[in-house]
Amino acid sequence: MVPSPLALLLALGAAAAALAEPLRFVDCGSIDGSIQEVNVSPCPTQPCLLHKGTSYSINVTFASKIESQGSKARVYGEMLHVDIPFPIPEPDGCKSGIQCPIQKGHSYSYLNKLPVKSEYPNIKLIVKWELVDDQDQMLFCWKIPVQITS
């Protein structure tokens, strides 16, 4: 039996939707905002396999509960409950897709890159990503498991 064009279209649509699934994440203290969605691309499965020498796209959709003139990102690799700072190319949230000043009640798409340097060790860890407002309070904080690999 040959599948109908509609069945093929539905199957392809379901496969595409599965690839674009938002990540499961842990909210680690979003106070001044609420996270609606976290996407890391490419990361089809968890833990995310982060290949050395590759850059990953980060997209976080969140709603602000406060007004803020600016925002700053801090990223960590968490190992054995110790946060090790992880440099990113652009820590200024206002240069990462967020139109500043941030308005209370508005939703924003925060966009950034996570470069995985070739000198990083092959290791499993937790990526912790924070975005703080101009009072150093958490607009959002999320964690996901990753594995750095060659």
UniProtKB/TrEMBL annotation:
Residues 1-20 form the signal peptide. Transmembrane segments: none annotated. GO terms for biological process: cholesterol efflux; intracellular cholesterol transport. GO terms for cellular component: extracellular region. PANTHER family: NIEMANN PICK TYPE C2 PROTEIN NPC2-RELATED, NPC INTRACELLULAR CHOLESTEROL TRANSPORTER 2. The keyword ATP-binding does not apply. SUPFAM superfamilies: E set domains. Belongs to the NPC2 family. Pfam families: E1_DerP2_DerF2. It comes from Neopipo cinnamomea. It is found in: Secreted. Residues 25-146 form the MD-2-related lipid-recognition domain. Keywords: Disulfide bond, Secreted, Signal. GO terms for molecular function: cholesterol binding. InterPro entries: Ig_E-set, ML_dom, ML_Npc2-like, NPC2-like. The gene is Npc2. This is NPC intracellular cholesterol transporter 2. It comes from the Eukaryota.
